[in-house]
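Retro notes
What went well: the complex prediction finally ran end to end.
Inputs used:
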Amino acid sequence: MKFGIFFEISVPRPWGPDTEYKVYQNCLEQVRLADELGFDQVWAVEHHFLEEYSHCSAPELFLTACAMETKHIRVGHGIVVCVPQFNHPIRVAERAAVLDILSGGRLEFGTGRSATWTELGGFEANPDETKKTWDEYVRVIPKMWTQERFGYRGRCFSMPKRAVLPKPLQKPHPPMWVAVTSPGTELDAAERGLGSLGLTFGGFEEQEKRIAEYRRRIRSCEPVGEFVNEQVNTVNFLFCHEDREYAIKTGQRLAGTFNYLAEQLLAARQAYPTRSYPNLGLLPALRREATSAPEGRVPEGLCIGDPDRIIEVIKKWESVGVDRINFLLNAVETIPQEEVLASMRLFAREVMPKFGVQPPSKEPAGVS
Amino acid sequence: MPLVGERDLRSLAPHAPLLPDLRAEPLTLTEVEVLQLLYEIDDSAITSLLPPALHPTIPPTVSFVFWRVRSGPWGEFELAQARVGCRAGARPRALLLRAYCSNEAAGRALAEGWGFPIVSAHVRLRHYYDRVVGEVRRGDDIVLRGELVDPEAISGADIQYIANLNMARLRGADGEALRLVQFDPEYIFHKAERGRPQVQEFDATAWLLEGAVLDWPISASYAVCDIELPRIRYLVDPARPPLEAVERVGG
């Protein structure tokens, strides 16, 4: 089991001149601590226009800063929105390669397609097209990284032969993932040899079935890249405190706040009738999980509580086949920064060793 | 926390219908034609259209909904609504301050049963192969005219209608009070189409939506469906903050 942290970078109103600066600084401090404590990866989303919920519109820049301030932690660029109106595929390949180089080969590359009308409408992207363009992107980007020169005549873009530069430091290329927010997308991931990022469906039993099917299908996949990235990476909340009652109360506030913010945005499905968006995007399964338990009780799959409870929860995730858990640590700064850092320290001291994770050595990680 | 509405409720009270009780029985209207046109509106009105109990959607939106009902307990009627997209806490909802209805008996039943703030008018919904047209006319004035252009068939499962919050007056122990009545019907779809929305006329004042300026078209859908008018289960006190505003009926 590996552990990571996951940033939406939510910024609470009222917005003063330096509110965003402070939130970004808090996030960077959390990343530096995560690196020291032995967390394996930091992920940053790409979202646009999502007021309060996520001010993380240039994750490659944030992750570059993370890479510059850390030695070991891997940087998860995810997900990159694979829709032409948001990002041209050549620019995606170029930026990711630079991030891989600057981080010393620590890039994890996540792909997806956006789930809100707020974003899709803002870029005038057609919701019917996003699954198709995502599929095209994930096939061509690894070729841009691995072929000396790359040319392409496609559906959503074409280009004459050019050298897409630079090439990533990791050879043949960084691990590739796809965001899985609706049932069935984990099978898309499997068929393409991609890691499953964010698989969180309610109930461990259901989870186990889906992960087993993912692993069965990926054995016969046609990988879009040069290798198969068979891994299941989930998203969860983290608040760890010695006092279980306090931890649960605070953790539930975190989960509730996150859910509340997500609901304010206009999901693609609510605005535009299309088969392309069967679910209400923005981590819907995690939000369902967060609100699934009767009042006063903690949903069984959430990592909030004292270390003993969290160990128990993670063992269950491990037993159903999850390889990595990434934690949302805060939402609109609802938890004071010192408490977030203390929660991370306690988790690293009491929980991570139970899963074989120790603080890192002094040697930098990545490609040497 | 998210933005909340800032509308002065005193100006709305005279327009809200009086709901004699909350005992409306479920009722199914069959083979109803429904046209919905959805627009983003200018953000200058992001908080001014809504009461303090509601959050605006991001971006702010208005949906125009037409019904053509060919049969039922009140006879044939056509209904038009202009609703502001919002959130009651974390729930997606649409605020209705005024609706126009072509049939007085139907309008009265909808007002007294579910708090629809009805005004009589000439309402038309007409389906053609190249477009679906909705229009509301009061005397010589057109207060709304819009179309779904270039319809294409889709599945009814692709359409999601958002529940109404109808502004109404309720009589209680302390006299009359404004409440938003949640109207969340069930739909069974028989046919559905999608196209581009085009609104040619929209008199915001006639819908009590002063300041709502249509800014950007989002989507248009047309459906033929059975609509089960629901029991009233929830009310919202428009004056209270969002997290304290929802009241369960009978609970």
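What we learned: Chain B has one domain: 9-248.
What to try next: split runs per interface for comparison.
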